[in-house]
Amino acid sequence: MSQQFNNQFFAYTKQIADGAFKAQSLALKSLETVAGLQLKAFEQQTRDSAAFVAEALEVRDADALRTLWEKGATLGREQAERAVEVSQEIIAVTQKTAESLQALVQEQRQAANDAVVAPAAKKAAAK
Q1: What's the confidence (pLDDT) of residue 81?
Q2: Average pLDDT for 91-119
Q3: What is the pLDDT of residue 50?
Q4: Long-range pairs, 29-36, Cβ under 8 A, ≥24
Q5: Cα dihedral angle (20, 15, 115, 105), rounded to 10 degrees?
Q6: Does the CA dihedral 97-103-106-112 come out positive or negative?
Q7: Alpha-carbon separation of residue 113 from 14, 44, 93 (angstroms)
Q8: Computed from CA positions of residues 45, 47, 51, 54, in that sequence, does the dihedral angle turn out positive or negative?
């Protein structure tokens, strides 16, 4: 009796550990993707801003300043649009990860139910 309990306990513990490992792997993969998206966006914004600052340092008259002002407004708008695009991509990655985690939880729940029902069915068949 004790051996049977130990076997069931260790099998259930292994199942929980495997599920936790899979969930952690999914979360880390998602985090890596999100960090990559953010880093790529940050690099692009840095390049654009550096180019704008370099151009701003070359302004010598009012016409050049007016042109720079328009480029600055365009740059701000482009960076805001890019930020929205990256946010949407991050939301999509997060949603996909949540769906994968939900599927994993359902799989674990089904496996746990099967593990409980199988011994009970064996006992009922033995009687």
Answers
A1: 96
A2: 87
A3: 95
A4: 29/97, 30/93, 30/94, 30/96, 30/97, 33/93, 34/90, 34/93, 34/94
A5: 20
A6: negative
A7: 15, 50, 30
A8: positive
Between CA 77 and CA 73 the distance in angstroms is 6
Residue carrying the six token digits 């260790």 = 10
Token code pair at residue 60? 């010598």
- Cα 93 to the chain's mean position, in Å? 5
Domain ranges, ordered by start, for the chain: 2-106
3-state secondary structure 19-33: HHHHHHHHHHHHHHH
Q: Is the pLDDT of residue 9 over 90?
A: no
- Provide the pLDDT for residue 78: 95
